[in-house]
Amino acid sequence: MADRVSLVSANLVTVGIESFLYGIVFLLSLTFSYLHVSRAVGSNSTYGRARLSRIVTPIFVGTVFVFSTCTTHWCLTMTRLFQAFVIYEGGAAPLLFYASLSEPTEVAKTAVVIATLIGADIMIAYRMWIVWGKNWYVVIVPMLTVLGLCVSGIGIVVTLAGLNDGETVFVTSAAHWITADYATTFVTNIYSSAMIAFKVWKADRNTGKSYGGGNLKRVLATIIESAGIYTIYVVVFFAAYESDSNLQFTFVDTLCQVAGISFMMINVRVGLGWADTGNNISQASSGGFQPRRNLDQSYVMRPVAVDISTVVYKDDDLSQPTTKGDLPEQYRAV
Predict the structure, then answer these.
(1) Where does the UniProt annotation place the signal sequence (predicted)?
(2) Which structural domain, as residue segments, surrounds residue 234?
């Protein structure tokens, strides 16, 4: 398989696929940012610093970070395309350029991929922490795996920077770090997604039909879809890498954008109101959930005119009820 896919072909395919995926990341990022900012600014109950705090949330900061790394990675991919076919040796030796894994732009691109994975893993772990009512015990595993991702990521970057000409990414010194890197991000996503899914299932069981038509099930579908895309992609990358195929370059270079899409999908669905907040899920799973609207979802009450006719009974010979308007002025209530 490795002989059938040339290094140049794998990188050319990467340019097309990554450009398409980056377009999706760009669209999802803009959509979430617009929904998030408009909701925070449109809230009548917050002003000044309070409104700013509603905008600059951990999820929004994570969105900006992941979008920045995805953009940087795409720019580096396009830069390397011009370097290979225009700048390096006048464009006469693209194979030699792509084969040099210690080239600065290749090392920088790898570092950006690691940064994206770290950011996405921290955000999925943060969501799980919120859903579980900010329980620190449930995030022990993600904390350890993210730490392992950071260490192995640094190991990959240092190893690639020290490779000699002619050495490939399949050498033993790099293989150990790469395996550890993607094993840790795999565990983080599977564990966090499973814990969120369990909490959602528990909340749905406790609330029954009182929560409003399966909103929690839509949350579960959102988490499974987003995590499933990323997890499957990581598995495919592992398969390509273990088979010593040059296709692994395509998968690893587009993994950055896939991680961004997986992260942004959840953000956009929450922004559109297709999924509920983690606090509501946490309350529902504990059995103490009371449906309520957020401040930015509440309706403004309009003035209502009420015409009240008061009936007063007089003790007279006719015993006929008389309205307040029929009474003499001295007997009318003030």
Answers:
(1) none
(2) 7-285
